[in-house]
From TrEMBL:
Coiled coil: none annotated. This is Molybdenum cofactor sulfurase. InterPro entries: Benzoxazolinone_Detox_Enz, MoCF_Sase_C, Pyrv_Knase-like_insert_dom_sf, Tri_helical_YiiM-like. Residues 37-167 form the MOSC domain.
Length: 230
């Protein structure tokens, strides 16, 4: 399989500064346009995360977010002012590929870099702060317009002129479907097992699903979505 997703990248972004915003440490507003991304197995050179426990690691080296989603969020009046890439903290911005077209485990080629799709973005309360909307994270969770993360299979350089090609499909579970399953409002062991069987799924999601199955219950999402316990 060699299917071109995107002919040309809309934007590349990175940043390594952390800023306090309404008492929350975040690097989301410190991303800036880059002429290229130098991609290593564990990081993008010049890029860092304020919260490496939940953002970053080997399964989340690069964040890809569809640029056209900004327009939809604006139409839903979920942004207090005009926002565009890289306001989601993304590294890669494109038009033409979305969560319904990208599957867990997909292996893609961008320039001389080979990547694997590992998980959707799990929206958190920092997005509420970023866009001054108390339910932005919940809206992203429910709409599944979240972007996705990559692990690095081969290092190299990504440039804006590079195309993005799907070179191997490992599973039939899209990013949108993975979001639907993971954030089901009620416990569903069968659906969790379906997602767990996906080749390439991020280890943090694997462990989270295994904990649910062991406890036969879903964790409380209030802290992640709103920054406070329910």
């Amino acid at each position: 399989m060699n299917k071109k997703w995107v002919n040309r990248i809309s934007g590349l972004y990175l940043g390594d500064q952390v800023q306090m915003h309404n008492g929350v440490a975040s690097g989301i507003n410190q991303k800036h346009a880059a002429t290229q991304l130098t991609v290593q197995f564990d990081r993008v050179v010049g890029n860092s995360e304020a919260d490496p426990k939940h953002h970053g690691g080997l399964d989340r080296v690069l964040h890809h977010f569809p640029r056209e989603h900004y327009g939809q969020y604006r139409r839903w009046d979920l942004m207090s002012s005009f926002k565009d890439a890289p306001s989601m903290g993304e590294n890669i911005s494109t038009v033409g590929v979305n969560e319904s077209l990208v599957n867990i485990g997909d292996i893609v080629q961008i320039g001389d870099v080979t990547l694997q799709v590992t998980q959707p973005r799990s929206p958190c309360f920092k997005l509420n702060v970023q866009f001054e909307q108390p339910k932005f994270a919940l809206a992203m969770q429910e709409s599944r317009m979240c972007g996705w993360f990559y692990r690095v299979l081969s290092e190299g350089v990504i440039r804006p002129s590079d195309s993005i090609c799907l070179i191997e499909r490992k599973t039939d579970i899209s990013i949108a479907k993975a979001m639907q399953i993971y954030f089901l409002p009620e416990f569903d062991a069968e659906q969790y097992q379906t997602l767990l069987a996906c080749d390439g799924l991020a280890q943090s999601w694997v462990e989270s699903l295994q904990r649910r199955l062991a406890k036969q219950s879903i964790e409380d999402w209030a802290m992640r979505l709103y920054g406070k316990a329910s």
